[in-house]
Prior knowledge:
2 copies of one chain form a homodimer.
Chain A: H1 5-12, H2 14-25, H3 37-54, E1 57-62, E2 69-74, E3 82-88, E4 108-110, E5 113-115, H4 123-140, E6 146-152, H5 162-168, H6 170-173, E7 177-180, E8 184-185, E9 192-197, E10 199-208, E11 214-215, H7 216-219, H8 226-235, H9 258-267, H10 271-278, H11 291-296, E12 300-309, E13 318-319, E14 322-331, H12 337-351, E15 357-366, E16 369-370, H13 376-389, E17 394-398, H14 404-412, E18 416-418, E19 422-423, E20 434-436, H15 437-457
Parallel strand pairs in A: 3-6, 3-7, 7-18, 8-19, 9-17
Antiparallel strand pairs in A: 1-2, 2-6, 4-5, 5-20, 9-16, 10-14, 10-15, 11-13, 12-14
Amino acid sequence: MANTDFDTYLTAHRDEHLEQLRTLLRYPSISTLSAHAADVRDCAQFLGEMAAGIGFEHVELIPTPRHPVLYADWLHAPGKPTVLVYGHYDVQPVDPLELWQTPPFEPDIRDGRIYARGASDDKGQVFMHLKSFEALMQTTGQLPVNVKLCIEGEEEIGSPHLHAVLEERREQFAADVLVISDTTILGPNQPSVCYGLRGLAALEVHVTGANGDLHSGLYGGSIQNPLHALVELLASLHLPDGRVAVEGFYDRVVPLTADERAAFAELSPDDAQLAADLGVPELFGETGYTTLERQWARPTLELNGVYGGFQGEGTKTVIPNQAHAKITCRLVPNQDPREIQDQIAAHLSRHCPPGVRLEVVRQDCGQPYVTPFDHPAIQLAARAYEQAYGVPAAFTRMGGSIPIVETFTRILDVPVVLMGFGLATENFHAPNEHFSLANFDRGLRTLCHYWLGLAEQGV
Amino acid sequence: MANTDFDTYLTAHRDEHLEQLRTLLRYPSISTLSAHAADVRDCAQFLGEMAAGIGFEHVELIPTPRHPVLYADWLHAPGKPTVLVYGHYDVQPVDPLELWQTPPFEPDIRDGRIYARGASDDKGQVFMHLKSFEALMQTTGQLPVNVKLCIEGEEEIGSPHLHAVLEERREQFAADVLVISDTTILGPNQPSVCYGLRGLAALEVHVTGANGDLHSGLYGGSIQNPLHALVELLASLHLPDGRVAVEGFYDRVVPLTADERAAFAELSPDDAQLAADLGVPELFGETGYTTLERQWARPTLELNGVYGGFQGEGTKTVIPNQAHAKITCRLVPNQDPREIQDQIAAHLSRHCPPGVRLEVVRQDCGQPYVTPFDHPAIQLAARAYEQAYGVPAAFTRMGGSIPIVETFTRILDVPVVLMGFGLATENFHAPNEHFSLANFDRGLRTLCHYWLGLAEQGV
């Protein structure tokens, strides 16, 4: 077997693979919307059939109270490492729909990219794993390592049930290394291995005033407007210098080391260029930190949605009786998501203006995660990238959250390798999400090199 | 002719009148929504036909760039005063629709009230004027005074075109007194004549960040979130003690006199009872003023709507690229609406955080209005109320705005009498708007007494 037979195979089957990817992307598997529960399940079913077609065995849709976990394995490489591949087949909601240039669930290839919800986060990357195994199986009749698949349908809602599945089935999911492709690389020609992720803590805030909406002429000035109370509360969460004003928020944050700050500085983007690319007048963030430090290693508190009162065309002179906000925090070691939720709830209670009622609802949580980058499984990943891309891989952290990473390390005690193929500009969670076909092609080859490397060198 | 023949007539025709009122209320004449333009016009047409049926002449739908003004007259009482009756047949939007117990445009009579959008504001009251004239016409063969009708379809969007209509047709609309029924009385058994209204200044605020929505994990902490900028801006508009923080906002406010404050104090509601009725934990407003002073004679700045980002079920980790707010101010003599808009725009520009773009759109304006309450047309109105209700009328001001009042006085130089029949609890601009049938009955008789009083005593 020549090490690059997979390359010939992938080239020959590219069109067929892209057609299969389109089919996968057509499932509107939005996990947070209960109306899409059947679509989520259908998508899992489709992936399971694809895995079986490749040669995976024990294909199973493990039920949970909401969306199933797809398990499958191929365990016929005695003496070789066992790799657990994690990914997710659920996607984020698609609104505002009117901003999509082509419909989110009708994949469209243009300008060397495939556009669709889930193209990069994370169906496209899950698909590449399956096709890398298919290429090796088709060209060598086997896989170089033992492989287990764990593809879940609840990542975008905080993986509420994977925890329990892993606890119940520790043996079934046991592995020597966990590989996840749900992260980005630094640029189209700059592969990178991510060794840290931020955690997540989500909350909803509800402010209620009168029994119903009131006329602002009759009552304006004599009762608290819930929107006034809400904006005052939300404004109190930050200081003008960009820091989070919640008492205790930074108490457990592990400071960046001088080495890390120096490594980050080398990778630092051109702030002016980034601002121009994003279309903002200037970048803005916590005083005393660079853009990469703010994105990868500092915690945040973001408003994801604020709403109340009249949103239609024209004027409506109303005092609404409700006002709402959705908040998520990105957390870094050693912040604790539940403690952060408590601190925010306490802050909001303490600052609530008179004349309204406040309710804070605690939602999804995910622990932050950082692993040493000198682990062999990480170093082999960097080599695989270099083999496919022709340039050395950088070592990065990432601002996003894959809360389940911390769960995997805690329950399965397995090293985690975050091998991403997305680009930060690919509009995850936003209209016009897309995935670069150049990274699709090179990523498939990176994964094949990695499986072969793990087989040769072990972990 | 006995002065109370109209009473017998109104009693005999009550069911028929309520059926006609239902028909009027079925028109979804929402002036601010362009999709309802035809409904607005149909409603004007219906009222014009009703006026003609009563005996009005020169019925005309005066076109404007948006919604027509209904004109009609009956001018066969030589030597008697000419009364101009102003009202509006357009209504506010109806969202949130799910909070209506019965559909807003399917009028429902229950508990002695008629429920529908426009029941009290202002179709119900316009309808009473027409029926008071019908009662006098049917029982005496004529009207006691000369009458002109001016019923417009743009009151709820700030009457943008009535001004030009009045300027062009000063002679046609000339009158000795202007009577408007678009206000409230103090209570079911406490009639009142309103001698002052607050003005209005409306604005929209738009904050824009990046080219599109961004992933809060990847970019969170490194760019300004438009929602953060918006809540900071909006929170800066008020001080914690309830005062408006906009520089210059109070500069032109005419202070309440000691006499007015004493008169207001006599009419003052029980704050604890009002809070309980509204369902709020406590009342809240500008330090140093009573509830009535805050509602009638102090200016306000209210957020009527705030929106941006994700509003759906669950969590969406997005940094939205837009955030919006709708603001209206209630103004008192001698504040100038356009100057107030400029002051707010300047305040917002001065306080805008870095990293976003701010746009402030100036919208509707209306001047505040106060008239002396010893004018004979006002005193006769008080007597008419007393004749119908059996108790003396109080003299009040009102927190709402009828911007056109100031326009009428300026263009036509005519005294204005605000004879309202609504109650403050009738949910104008809110779900479950309704109108008391007791006030419907007594209001019809009040108007008849008033026309007869004007004929007897002149103005």
